[in-house]
Model the fold of this input.
Amino acid sequence: MPRNADELVALLDLERIDDNLFRGQQMPSSLPRVFGGQAAAQALVAATRTVDPAYVVHSLHSYFLQPGDTRAPTIYDVENLRDGRSFATRRVLARQHGRPIYALTANFHQPEPGYEHQDRMPEVIAPEEAIDTRAAAEALDPGRDTSEDAEWDVVDFRYVGSDGDGLIEPDPAHPARQRFWLRVSSPLPDDPAQHVAAFTYLSDMTLMGAALAPHGVRIGGPETLVASLDHAVWFHRPFRADEWWLYDQVSPSASGGRGLVLARVFTQDGTLVASVAQEALIRRRTRP
Done:
Protein backbone atom coordinates (compact mmCIF):
# COMPACT_ATOMS: atom_id res chain seq x y z
CA MET A 1 0.00 0.00 0.00
CA PRO A 2 1.25 3.55 -0.69
CA ARG A 3 3.05 5.31 2.16
CA ASN A 4 2.77 8.87 0.83
CA ALA A 5 1.36 11.01 -1.97
CA ASP A 6 4.18 10.17 -4.38
CA GLU A 7 3.56 6.45 -4.03
CA LEU A 8 -0.20 6.98 -4.34
CA VAL A 9 0.29 8.93 -7.58
CA ALA A 10 2.52 6.13 -8.86
CA LEU A 11 -0.07 3.49 -7.92
CA LEU A 12 -2.75 5.38 -9.86
CA ASP A 13 -0.57 5.98 -12.92
CA LEU A 14 -1.93 3.15 -15.07
CA GLU A 15 -0.17 1.55 -18.01
CA ARG A 16 -2.06 1.82 -21.31
CA ILE A 17 -1.81 -1.59 -23.01
CA ASP A 18 -4.33 -1.02 -25.85
CA ASP A 19 -7.18 1.29 -26.83
CA ASN A 20 -9.42 1.63 -23.74
CA LEU A 21 -7.42 -1.06 -21.94
CA PHE A 22 -5.18 -0.33 -18.93
CA ARG A 23 -3.08 -2.23 -16.40
CA GLY A 24 -2.93 -1.24 -12.73
CA GLN A 25 -0.02 -2.47 -10.65
CA GLN A 26 0.02 -3.52 -7.01
CA MET A 27 2.21 -2.45 -4.13
CA PRO A 28 3.36 -4.83 -1.38
CA SER A 29 0.52 -5.32 1.09
CA SER A 30 -0.37 -7.49 4.07
CA LEU A 31 -4.10 -7.07 3.39
CA PRO A 32 -5.99 -10.28 2.49
CA ARG A 33 -7.56 -8.68 -0.60
CA VAL A 34 -7.17 -5.61 -2.80
CA PHE A 35 -8.32 -2.49 -0.97
CA GLY A 36 -11.64 -1.34 -2.46
CA GLY A 37 -10.56 2.28 -2.67
CA GLN A 38 -7.63 1.25 -4.84
CA ALA A 39 -9.87 -0.58 -7.33
CA ALA A 40 -12.26 2.39 -7.44
CA ALA A 41 -9.51 4.98 -7.91
CA GLN A 42 -7.67 3.00 -10.57
CA ALA A 43 -10.91 2.35 -12.47
CA LEU A 44 -11.75 6.05 -12.34
CA VAL A 45 -8.30 6.93 -13.69
CA ALA A 46 -8.81 4.45 -16.54
CA ALA A 47 -12.17 6.02 -17.40
CA THR A 48 -10.79 9.56 -17.17
CA ARG A 49 -7.98 8.80 -19.61
CA THR A 50 -10.54 8.00 -22.33
CA VAL A 51 -12.50 11.27 -21.91
CA ASP A 52 -11.83 14.73 -23.36
CA PRO A 53 -10.17 16.84 -20.60
CA ALA A 54 -12.92 19.43 -21.05
CA TYR A 55 -15.19 17.02 -19.13
CA VAL A 56 -14.77 16.40 -15.40
CA VAL A 57 -16.20 13.50 -13.43
CA HIS A 58 -19.32 14.33 -11.45
CA SER A 59 -20.37 10.86 -10.27
CA LEU A 60 -19.37 7.23 -10.09
CA HIS A 61 -21.35 4.15 -9.18
CA SER A 62 -19.72 0.78 -8.60
CA TYR A 63 -19.94 -2.79 -7.33
CA PHE A 64 -17.30 -4.92 -5.63
CA LEU A 65 -17.77 -8.31 -7.28
CA GLN A 66 -15.01 -10.57 -5.92
CA PRO A 67 -11.98 -10.17 -3.65
CA GLY A 68 -8.92 -8.98 -5.55
CA ASP A 69 -5.51 -10.63 -5.44
CA THR A 70 -2.90 -8.27 -3.93
CA ARG A 71 -0.10 -10.09 -5.81
CA ALA A 72 -1.55 -9.72 -9.33
CA PRO A 73 -1.99 -6.67 -11.59
CA THR A 74 -5.51 -5.57 -12.48
CA ILE A 75 -6.72 -5.07 -16.05
CA TYR A 76 -9.22 -2.22 -16.57
CA ASP A 77 -11.41 -2.52 -19.69
CA VAL A 78 -13.16 0.80 -20.49
CA GLU A 79 -16.35 0.89 -22.56
CA ASN A 80 -17.41 4.20 -24.15
CA LEU A 81 -21.15 4.48 -23.55
CA ARG A 82 -21.66 8.12 -24.57
CA ASP A 83 -19.89 11.23 -25.76
CA GLY A 84 -22.49 14.01 -25.73
CA ARG A 85 -22.29 17.77 -25.90
CA SER A 86 -22.56 18.13 -22.11
CA PHE A 87 -21.96 14.65 -20.71
CA ALA A 88 -19.74 11.63 -21.33
CA THR A 89 -20.25 8.19 -19.77
CA ARG A 90 -17.83 5.32 -19.33
CA ARG A 91 -18.21 1.81 -17.96
CA VAL A 92 -15.14 0.03 -16.56
CA LEU A 93 -14.72 -3.66 -15.74
CA ALA A 94 -11.71 -4.63 -13.63
CA ARG A 95 -10.36 -8.17 -14.06
CA GLN A 96 -7.76 -10.38 -12.44
CA HIS A 97 -6.92 -13.92 -13.55
CA GLY A 98 -9.60 -13.56 -16.23
CA ARG A 99 -12.45 -12.92 -13.79
CA PRO A 100 -14.24 -9.65 -12.97
CA ILE A 101 -13.54 -8.24 -9.51
CA TYR A 102 -15.00 -4.71 -9.76
CA ALA A 103 -17.37 -2.77 -12.03
CA LEU A 104 -17.70 1.01 -12.28
CA THR A 105 -19.82 3.46 -14.27
CA ALA A 106 -18.62 7.07 -14.28
CA ASN A 107 -20.28 10.15 -15.72
CA PHE A 108 -18.40 13.29 -16.81
CA HIS A 109 -19.78 16.81 -17.34
CA GLN A 110 -18.53 19.95 -19.00
CA PRO A 111 -18.61 22.55 -16.17
CA GLU A 112 -21.33 25.19 -16.55
CA PRO A 113 -23.01 27.85 -14.37
CA GLY A 114 -26.22 26.99 -12.52
CA TYR A 115 -28.24 27.30 -9.33
CA GLU A 116 -26.23 27.09 -6.10
CA HIS A 117 -27.12 25.83 -2.62
CA GLN A 118 -25.66 23.39 -0.09
CA ASP A 119 -26.15 21.89 3.37
CA ARG A 120 -24.44 23.63 6.27
CA MET A 121 -21.46 21.84 7.77
CA PRO A 122 -22.13 20.58 11.31
CA GLU A 123 -20.28 22.25 14.14
CA VAL A 124 -17.28 20.06 14.92
CA ILE A 125 -13.89 20.41 16.53
CA ALA A 126 -10.95 21.28 14.29
CA PRO A 127 -8.66 18.50 13.00
CA GLU A 128 -5.91 19.65 15.38
CA GLU A 129 -8.27 19.04 18.33
CA ALA A 130 -9.60 15.69 17.12
CA ILE A 131 -8.13 12.32 18.10
CA ASP A 132 -5.06 11.09 16.22
CA THR A 133 -6.23 7.48 15.96
CA ARG A 134 -2.76 5.97 15.55
CA ALA A 135 -1.24 7.88 18.46
CA ALA A 136 -4.23 7.00 20.63
CA ALA A 137 -3.92 3.30 19.80
CA GLU A 138 -0.22 3.34 20.68
CA ALA A 139 -0.92 5.12 23.97
CA LEU A 140 -3.64 2.63 24.94
CA ASP A 141 -1.58 -0.44 23.99
CA PRO A 142 2.16 0.28 23.69
CA GLY A 143 2.96 -3.38 23.01
CA ARG A 144 0.41 -3.95 20.23
CA ASP A 145 1.35 -5.32 16.82
CA THR A 146 1.94 -2.30 14.57
CA SER A 147 3.01 -4.23 11.47
CA GLU A 148 -0.14 -3.26 9.57
CA ASP A 149 -0.02 0.45 10.45
CA ALA A 150 2.15 1.27 7.43
CA GLU A 151 -0.72 0.13 5.16
CA TRP A 152 -2.41 3.42 5.94
CA ASP A 153 0.54 5.84 5.99
CA VAL A 154 -0.87 7.64 2.93
CA VAL A 155 -3.76 9.05 4.98
CA ASP A 156 -4.02 11.24 8.07
CA PHE A 157 -7.00 10.29 10.28
CA ARG A 158 -8.44 12.49 13.00
CA TYR A 159 -11.40 11.00 14.84
CA VAL A 160 -14.16 13.40 15.88
CA GLY A 161 -16.58 10.88 17.40
CA SER A 162 -19.57 8.63 16.91
CA ASP A 163 -22.87 7.70 18.49
CA GLY A 164 -21.10 4.77 20.10
CA ASP A 165 -18.81 6.84 22.32
CA GLY A 166 -20.72 10.02 23.11
CA LEU A 167 -18.11 12.32 21.57
CA ILE A 168 -20.73 13.89 19.30
CA GLU A 169 -24.07 15.26 20.46
CA PRO A 170 -26.83 12.61 20.32
CA ASP A 171 -29.50 12.89 17.64
CA PRO A 172 -32.48 10.57 18.31
CA ALA A 173 -33.51 10.80 14.65
CA HIS A 174 -30.12 9.42 13.55
CA PRO A 175 -28.78 6.77 15.99
CA ALA A 176 -25.82 5.68 13.83
CA ARG A 177 -23.34 8.47 12.99
CA GLN A 178 -19.59 8.97 12.82
CA ARG A 179 -17.25 11.83 11.90
CA PHE A 180 -13.63 11.89 10.81
CA TRP A 181 -11.23 14.47 9.45
CA LEU A 182 -9.11 12.96 6.67
CA ARG A 183 -6.49 14.06 4.14
CA VAL A 184 -3.70 12.58 2.04
CA SER A 185 -0.72 12.67 4.39
CA SER A 186 1.68 14.55 2.06
CA PRO A 187 1.24 17.11 -0.77
CA LEU A 188 -0.19 15.99 -4.10
CA PRO A 189 0.53 17.62 -7.48
CA ASP A 190 -1.87 20.40 -8.49
CA ASP A 191 -3.65 18.36 -11.21
CA PRO A 192 -7.37 18.32 -10.19
CA ALA A 193 -7.83 14.84 -11.68
CA GLN A 194 -5.22 13.47 -9.28
CA HIS A 195 -7.07 14.96 -6.32
CA VAL A 196 -10.33 13.38 -7.49
CA ALA A 197 -8.61 9.99 -7.85
CA ALA A 198 -6.84 10.33 -4.47
CA PHE A 199 -10.11 11.23 -2.76
CA THR A 200 -11.79 8.23 -4.38
CA TYR A 201 -9.02 6.05 -2.93
CA LEU A 202 -9.59 7.44 0.58
CA SER A 203 -13.38 7.50 0.30
CA ASP A 204 -13.60 3.75 1.02
CA MET A 205 -12.09 4.25 4.49
CA THR A 206 -13.93 4.43 7.84
CA LEU A 207 -17.48 4.41 6.43
CA MET A 208 -18.83 1.21 7.96
CA GLY A 209 -17.82 2.41 11.39
CA ALA A 210 -20.98 4.54 11.32
CA ALA A 211 -23.18 1.47 10.81
CA LEU A 212 -21.42 -0.41 13.61
CA ALA A 213 -21.19 2.49 16.09
CA PRO A 214 -24.51 1.97 17.95
CA HIS A 215 -23.84 -1.78 18.29
CA GLY A 216 -20.62 -1.45 20.26
CA VAL A 217 -18.42 -3.16 17.66
CA ARG A 218 -15.72 -1.82 15.38
CA ILE A 219 -14.33 -2.43 11.90
CA GLY A 220 -11.65 -5.09 12.13
CA GLY A 221 -12.98 -6.46 15.40
CA PRO A 222 -13.16 -10.24 15.87
CA GLU A 223 -16.93 -10.35 16.21
CA THR A 224 -17.89 -8.89 12.82
CA LEU A 225 -17.15 -9.57 9.16
CA VAL A 226 -17.27 -6.40 7.02
CA ALA A 227 -16.96 -6.29 3.20
CA SER A 228 -17.95 -3.46 0.85
CA LEU A 229 -20.67 -4.36 -1.66
CA ASP A 230 -21.16 -1.15 -3.62
CA HIS A 231 -19.86 2.41 -3.58
CA ALA A 232 -21.02 5.69 -5.11
CA VAL A 233 -19.54 9.19 -5.13
CA TRP A 234 -20.98 12.50 -6.35
CA PHE A 235 -18.47 15.30 -6.85
CA HIS A 236 -20.05 18.73 -6.30
CA ARG A 237 -17.15 21.20 -6.26
CA PRO A 238 -13.37 21.03 -6.79
CA PHE A 239 -11.18 20.56 -3.70
CA ARG A 240 -7.77 19.28 -2.64
CA ALA A 241 -7.56 15.78 -1.19
CA ASP A 242 -4.31 16.69 0.61
CA GLU A 243 -6.08 19.32 2.76
CA TRP A 244 -8.36 18.38 5.65
CA TRP A 245 -11.91 17.36 4.78
CA LEU A 246 -14.68 16.31 7.14
CA TYR A 247 -16.29 12.92 6.53
CA ASP A 248 -19.75 13.37 8.09
CA GLN A 249 -21.32 9.91 8.06
CA VAL A 250 -24.77 8.57 8.94
CA SER A 251 -26.15 5.05 8.63
CA PRO A 252 -29.91 5.23 8.08
CA SER A 253 -30.35 1.45 8.15
CA ALA A 254 -28.73 -1.86 8.99
CA SER A 255 -30.68 -5.07 8.43
CA GLY A 256 -30.40 -8.51 6.90
CA GLY A 257 -26.63 -8.59 7.27
CA ARG A 258 -26.11 -5.34 5.34
CA GLY A 259 -25.50 -1.75 6.42
CA LEU A 260 -25.95 1.45 4.42
CA VAL A 261 -23.88 4.58 5.09
CA LEU A 262 -24.40 8.01 3.54
CA ALA A 263 -21.72 10.67 3.93
CA ARG A 264 -21.19 14.35 3.23
CA VAL A 265 -17.71 15.73 2.58
CA PHE A 266 -16.89 19.29 3.72
CA THR A 267 -13.69 21.28 3.44
CA GLN A 268 -12.56 23.21 6.53
CA ASP A 269 -14.23 26.39 5.31
CA GLY A 270 -17.61 24.61 5.27
CA THR A 271 -17.91 23.98 1.52
CA LEU A 272 -19.80 20.81 0.62
CA VAL A 273 -17.59 19.21 -2.04
CA ALA A 274 -18.80 15.62 -2.37
CA SER A 275 -21.35 13.05 -1.23
CA VAL A 276 -20.72 9.32 -0.79
CA ALA A 277 -22.94 6.26 -0.35
CA GLN A 278 -21.83 2.73 0.46
CA GLU A 279 -23.54 -0.52 1.37
CA ALA A 280 -21.55 -3.33 2.95
CA LEU A 281 -21.92 -6.77 4.37
CA ILE A 282 -21.80 -6.54 8.16
CA ARG A 283 -22.20 -10.12 9.31
CA ARG A 284 -21.86 -11.41 12.85
CA ARG A 285 -19.15 -14.04 13.04
CA THR A 286 -20.56 -17.34 14.24
CA ARG A 287 -17.19 -19.13 14.48
CA PRO A 288 -13.58 -18.04 15.10
In short: The CA atoms of residues 199 and 241 lie 5 Å apart.
